[in-house]
């Protein structure tokens, strides 16, 4: 089941990358592949041929790696499987980005060869528009109910004795702060004057501010919903828990697709406004987009709209922009190693799980999992079982095809797992507050531990 999910995620990512990066080849504000062209050049045969080759290259990359993803079905080690997942996620991203850079330079060369060099116009300052630039964007008040609901839900989680309550409650607060940061970034965006017509510039800015603020506010409620469902699913049992999880997956995919559709709709509305004029005010910004990202040390803005019209991007010319981008890179590397190291230790360590009887207590350990110290007097029952009673819900820990470690809910009771799922039986240790499930990599060692504990208990 795990490999099916991973392959599905990778194919979905490949399609999204090919589609979203391909939008750079569709003219938007006279910009094609990060190069601003005269209006009469947008439909030139060589421009159309170059953009067609660019899109085709992206879809070829998506197809090749989507087919390569199926090799994951033949991998037996979970660590190798997760390594392939990361490689098949990051390498296509790099390949698509490299393809974009190549065709940006091809378009720049074509622009020079054809003499399509536009005169640079001075920045147009509209003081009236600047004073009322946020007239149409959603007010901060729309974010307040999401904040209050997040705080109330966080309080409920912290008082529920759920093992994942702390992480979920912190995620709620951080999620709202991310949504607020997006909203504030939209509010701080300076006005744009892409035409010489004051009315069109006002409509363009009002439209952009409104729709982007809708996305920011919607993100706050989407994060709240996405974190609330797993918590309530852990309180349910049987078919209702599974229905809740499927509802979450459908909601996440649905919100993602709706957001893409909504921003494409905004882009089309912007283009419809700009098509009402024959001239486009070019301010020499092409030189700051040579690498597909914005790098301009002289620009005071940190966040600004990208040139595709579907995203907000960061000015990497500012020191804070470089720091944030570096922090994101370190976070990705940290997640990568945090994902891979425990699985490699479990796959290639002769005995990754340990059980030690010491001072009238049993100590259970597993790589990157919480250590359990169980007093022998607290053990109510011991048993050897061949499977876990359903429902089984992971609240905080690792849950793969071969290994299960960390905090779970098993048969509606808190449980801590240290399991190699391929080795039966499992040793089940029952206490008043929590159950513990443990197995060595060798069946006989697990049975021996059961015998040793049985002799020590009354």
Give keywords.
458 residues; 3-stranded antiparallel sheet; 13 strands; 14% strand; alpha+beta; single chain; 10 helices
What is this structure, in a nutshell?
This protein has 458 residues and is α+β, with helices and mostly antiparallel strands. The protein has helices spanning 2-22, 45-68, 78-113, 127-131, 144-158, 165-188, 198-233, 239-274, 319-348, 443-456; strands at residues 31-32, 35-36, 303-305, 312-314, 354-358, 361-365, 372-375, 379-385, 392-399, 403-410, 413-420, 426-431, 435-438.
Radius of gyration: 28 Å
SSE order, as H and E? HEEHHHHHHHEEHEEEEEEEEEH
Main beta sheet, described?
A: 6 strands, mixed
Number of separate helices: 10
Tell me how many strands there are. Answer: 13
User: What percent strand?
Assistant: 5-15%
Give the overall form: elongated
In angstroms, what separates the terminal alpha carbons?
42 Å
